[in-house]
Structures are given as structure tokens and as C-alpha cells.
């Protein structure tokens, strides 16, 4: 298996049959095509963002990659292994963090969960020690090891979960919303840790998130999925270009002034000495800031990123010829 094909999906499908009661003795059967002929490859050591609107099929993809769900069609391999057929063999080589759910034992102190994993995964003592020490240091878990998981804050629990996923030195780490609900400092800490992990160990990372900054700071490549289909695969800057998305520069001037002139940025709002300028997200803010600073009495400024939903929506819109998803096939059955 060449390293370029570390993860491969070839026309992978996942169809759910959902039955819903619509009345006495009546139910409706619907087929939901959560993943629809999805093909891509990820090379060893890549850090890839996997984004899309709610219900796009992101979590379903990750569950198939871990072997939790079996594809309805197509071919899927991770490190040469078919996940749903050899889930246990694959488990030794992958790590997973679901932001919405913990893999830790709720009632036990954090360290006890790690000890259990040490034994469950049969991690050699030296390796376990080394990985644990490293995670404790970089994720600042030292003071938390003796605290029962139920008493941890969300951010602390998430860091605990990330460490748990890495104790057995996985070659690939799937992260499904690892920064959801975290404060700015916890997010920064988690990102810094992931960057180091990828740089030092070459761990392949597939990251699902609704936070554009996660992608911006971590991923050279981003894939956008919508209705189970791959709509974009490339650098984040390219995604901004396709959708013409904009960032906003918020400028505080020393006093009230007429709207700032600094094309291609344009003033979209003025409130006293504060002005908001929109500029193409694909352009660097630095030259713009320099020009404004040279010509205006600048007190303070900040750059606001567009949110990920807006970027994706604009991209999907601008693609115009977006293939429409097949209508959900509903069929009424009497049971
Ligand atoms: N176990 C299941 N049974 C039936 N339908 C499911 C199941 N899991 C997911 N689905 C459906 O498949 C589609 C894709 O869901 P998925 O959880 O993969 O989306 P997602 O991209 O992770 O969304 P989000 O951003 O909200 O987490 C949705 O329509 C969802 O309702
Ligand atoms: Mg999800």
C-alpha cells in the first residue's frame, strides 16, 4: 500500500432505512442516503478538515472509517484494512474522539480510565508511560488525573478524551468536533497539541468541525461534503475563492472619520470611531492593515473570520450546478 493511499474510499455508500410510525398500524419507511458514492484518498501524515452542513454525512463517514458502521456499498480501506471486517485489528492503529460523547469511564478518576486502556489495548508499559507523560504535559492534565470524569468541565474532559485516544500510538486520529463547546484557551491548547502530534509523529488526522479556525490553523486541505457527496477538495483559500467569502476588519480610529478608503476592502458599517471593512477572505489582511495604519489614526483593530456555515453556503451556492440530492425515497407501508 503506497503511503498516498493510507485512507481510501471508492464510491462508498451508506443508506439508512428509517421506519417512523405515522399512525395506528401505519408506518412510513424512508431511505436516507447519508453517504452517496463518496471517493477520496488521504495520504499518511496529512491533516485534513472534513466539513459540511448538519446532516451532511460527516459522522457517518467517520463511523465507517472506524468500523462502527458497515458501508452499504463501495470499497473502503484504512492502512490496507477493511474497517468493518477487521475492526479489532484496526482499533490498534486508529484513535477516535467524538466530541459529543466520551470514551472515558464516567465514575472513575481519569487515570483509572487510562490504566484500563493500558490493559485493554495491551500497550507495552514503556510506551504507555511515555505517551501518558507526554499527553499529561502537553494537554495539562496533571491536576486532573485523580478527578472523576463526571466532575471535569467539558474542555477538561475533551483533553482527557484526546489523551485516551493516543495512548496506543495510533497512526491515524479521527476527531469529530473536538473543539465543540470549548473556550478560546482550551481550543488553542487542543490545536497546538494536534499540530505538534502531526509534526512530530506524523499522525494522520481527519478533523470534523464547525469552527473555521480549527481548519485554518491545522489543515492544509479541506473536504466539503453535502448530502453525502464530496463538493470540494483542496486548500481552504480555494474554498474562500470559490464562494467569494469575506473576512471583516474591525478598525478603531482615534476619532470619527469619513469611511476609510482601502480597496478592495469596503466599509460596511460605521459606528462613531469604529468602522467595519469587508475584504476577500482569500487575501492576506497584513497589507491592508499596513495601508490603513499608514493613512489613518489607528487605535486598535481585529479581524473577524466568516463562520464555516456561511463559507460553505456561499460555496455551494456559487457552484450553481450543484447536483441535487435524490429526493428521499419515502414509501408508505402498512405494518
Ligand atoms: N443511525 C442512523 N439511523 C438513521 N439515520 C441516520 C443514522 N445516523 C445518521 N443518520 C442520518 O444520516 C444523515 C447524515 O448524518 P451524520 O450524522 O453523518 O451527519 P453530520 O454531517 O455528522 O451532521 P452534524 O454536523 O449535524 O454532526 C442524516 O440525515 C442523519 O439523520
Ligand atoms: Mg456529526
From TrEMBL:
- BP-aspect Gene Ontology terms: response to antibiotic
* Location of this chain's protein in the cell: Cell membrane
Task: Provide a Gene Ontology MF annotation, just one.
Answer: ATP hydrolysis activity
**Record Pfam families:** ABC_tran (PF00005)
Q: Answer whether the UniProt record assigns the keyword ATP-binding to this protein.
A: yes
Q: Mind telling me which InterPro entries this protein's record contains?
A: AAA+_ATPase, ABC_transporter-like_ATP-bd, ABC_transporter_ATP-binding, P-loop_NTPase
- Report keywords, A-Z: Antibiotic resistance, ATP-binding, Nucleotide-binding, Transport
Q: Where is the ABC transporter domain?
A: 13-252
Major subcellular site:
membrane
**Would you name any one GO CC term?**
plasma membrane
Official protein name in the record:
ABC transporter ATP-binding protein
Q: What is the lineage of its organism?
A: Bacteria, Bacillati, Actinomycetota, Actinomycetes, Kitasatosporales
Amino acid at each position: 500500500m503506497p503511503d498516498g493511499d493510507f485512507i481510501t474510499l471508492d464510491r462508498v455508500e451508506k443508506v439508512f432505512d428509517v421506519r417512523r410510525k405515522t399512525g395506528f398500524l401505519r408506518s412510513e419507511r424512508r431511505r436516507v442516503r447519508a453517504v452517496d458514492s463518496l471517493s477520496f484518498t488521504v495520504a499518511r501524515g496529512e491533516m485534513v478538515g472534513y466539513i459540511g452542513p448538519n446532516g451532511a454525512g460527516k459522522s457517518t463517514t467517520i463511523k465507517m472509517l472506524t468500523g462502527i458502521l458497515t458501508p452499504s456499498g463501495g470499497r473502503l480501506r484504512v492502512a490496507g484494512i477493511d474497517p468493518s471486517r477487521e475492526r479489532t485489528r484496526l482499533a490498534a492503529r486508529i484513535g477516535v474522539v467524538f466530541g459529543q460523547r466520551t470514551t472515558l469511564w464516567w465514575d472513575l478518576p481519569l487515570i483509572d480510565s487510562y490504566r484500563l486502556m493500558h490493559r485493554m489495548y495491551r500497550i507495552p508499559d514503556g510506551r504507555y508511560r511515555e505517551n501518558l507523560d507526554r499527553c499529561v504535559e502537553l494537554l495539562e492534565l496533571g491536576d486532573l488525573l485523580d478527578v472523576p470524569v463526571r466532575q471535569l468541565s467539558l474542555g477538561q474532559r475533551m483533553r482527557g478524551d484526546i489523551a485516551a485516544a493516543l495512548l496506543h500510538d495510533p497512526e491515524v486520529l479521527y476527531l469529530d468536533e473536538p473543539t465543540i463547546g470549548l473556550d478560546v484557551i482550551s481550543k488553542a491548547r487542543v490545536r497546538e497539541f494536534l499540530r505538534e502530534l502531526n509534526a512530530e509523529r506524523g499522525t494522520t488526522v481527519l478533523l470534523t468541525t464547525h469552527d473555521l479556525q480549527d481548519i485554518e490553523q491545522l489543515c492544509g486541505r479541506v473536504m466539503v461534503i453535502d448530502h453525502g457527496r464530496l463538493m470540494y477538495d483542496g486548500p481552504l483559500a480555494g474554498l474562500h475563492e470559490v464562494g467569494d467569502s469575506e473576512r471583516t476588519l474591525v478598525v478603531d480610529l482615534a476619532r470619527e472619520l469619513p469611511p476609510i478608503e482601502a480597496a478592495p476592502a469596503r466599509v460596511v458599517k460605521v459606528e462613531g470611531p469604529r468602522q467595519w471593512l469587508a475584504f476577500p477572505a482569500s487575501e492576506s489582511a497584513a497589507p491592508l492593515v499596513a495601508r490603513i495604519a499608514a493613512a489613518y489614526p489607528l487605535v486598535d483593530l481585529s479581524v473577524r473570520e466568516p463562520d464555516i456555515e456561511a463559507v460553505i453556503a456561499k460555496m455551494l451556492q456559487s457552484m450553481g450546478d450543484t447536483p441535487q440530492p435524490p429526493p428521499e425515497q419515502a414509501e408508505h407501508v402498512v405494518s
